[in-house]
């Protein structure tokens, strides 16, 4: 169940995006599951259609959902577990970067440096 907190400092579209992504990641929304239309979900949540559309666009950009024209919007199928886990890690990193108020360029620089460095034994 999606709940939008109007008192939260997190914008409504981001709350919606995070909750939908969480449901997909947790397997609550399986690949191929049909999502409500933008208008229907906006009405159900008391949001503007543009707010829901923005959340859907961001999820689609990141390969979490896919729009099939008039057929609707669906949870995308991920290629494999490695892809799914990498997507989850990327989303978690992006959320942390936003919370820290880093720029995109700073975040990319940190990721680039981390990927080029030798892994430390654990």
UniProtKB/TrEMBL annotation:
InterPro entries in the cross-refs: Tscrpt_reg_HTH_GntR, WH-like_DNA-bd_sf, WH_DNA-bd_sf
Membrane among keywords: no
Keyword Metal-binding: no
Record-linked CDD domains: WHTH_GntR
Domain HTH gntR-type residues, every copy: 10-78
Keyword terms: DNA-binding, Transcription, Transcription regulation
GO terms of molecular function: DNA binding; DNA-binding transcription factor activity
SMART domains: HTH_GNTR
Protein name per Swiss-Prot or TrEMBL: GntR family transcriptional regulator
Native species: Microbacterium lacticum
């Amino acid at each position: 169940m999606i709940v939008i907190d109007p008192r939260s400092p997190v914008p409504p579209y981001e709350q919606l995006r995070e909750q939908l992504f969480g449901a997909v990641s947790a397997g609550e929304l399986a690949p191929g599951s049909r999502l409500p239309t933008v208008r229907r979900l906006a009405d159900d949540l008391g949001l503007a259609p543009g707010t829901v559309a923005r959340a859907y666009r961001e999820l689609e950009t990141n390969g979490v959902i896919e729009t099939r024209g008039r057929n609707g919007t669906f949870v995308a199928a991920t290629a494999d577990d490695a892809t799914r886990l990498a997507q989850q890690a990327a989303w978690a990193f992006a959320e942390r970067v936003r919370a820290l108020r880093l720029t995109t360029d700073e975040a990319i620089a940190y990721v680039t440096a981390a990927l080029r460095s030798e892994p430390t034994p654990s």
